[in-house]
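**Backbone geometry record:**
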Amino acid sequence: MLTRRHIRVKVMQSIYALIQSKDDSLQKQEKFLKVSIENTYTLYLLWLGLFVELQKRAADQISLSANKYISEKNEYPNPKKFIQNKLLLQIAQNKSLEEEIAHRKLDNWYLNEEYVKLIYKEIIESEVYQEYMSLPGSDYASDKELIMTLFKTIIAPNEKIYDYFEDDKLTWVDDIPIVNTFVLKHLKKTKESHAESYFLPSLLKDDEDMQFALQLLSRTLLKNAELEKEIEGKTPNWDKDRIAEVDSILLRMAICELLHFPSIPERVTINEYLEIAKEYSTPKSSIFINGILDKLTKEYKTAGKLNKIGRGLL
């Protein structure tokens, strides 16, 4: 679910949090990093949990409508079509997902039912929903297409949901785009024959990813003085105080990888941090960082300090 680039962003956030809090406890930052990574999975589960609650909400509305003495006007050919949506049912009836949400005590939507009502109202008023409901039949492909479209156009962009997530956990501001993209890709690959476990993907590819995260954090922090010396002299037109905080962190992390992670090719390291800089720092940061890393890489190669081995961990 999380790539190495996402992990690097998490480490960057942890170092930034340490600087802002002025707390130099490595143990606390390692804990912050682990929790931040785990919270990404929590966000994913909350999105799926919202689908579950929307299905329940729709079923309740159908039940209420059926109990009325006067039938509703402009009724769809099959009023139960949405609650019988194959992908929606696949998520709502997933026992493994239900148990995981219960285990983590993620009762957010139960405690904040107004968000479920808000999203459901927007869904039933949308053209895509009305077009879907107007057609008598459906198959798995069209059912899946509806859920993906609703998530992409109504659920994920909702500003009130975004504000709620932002208020709940600050690190979710950066996690939302990552998780939203993953949800869409995961839904797109969903098949009717998939086992329940499909909706509970692994957060990290393997244990090495978590080791990489913790090592990158600890080595960058413990070797901070050494890494800062590497940058000195490479920025003649920039005082230390003029370098953006995020740029400084990214440079130290990148240099740490170049010197202390022999299994990661230098080109992979440079490309990853340039992409992160484009997204999280100033417009000119990637050019600034690329210039410094390019100079350092050439120096390290000349001095024999780049001891890279293996094919590299992407």
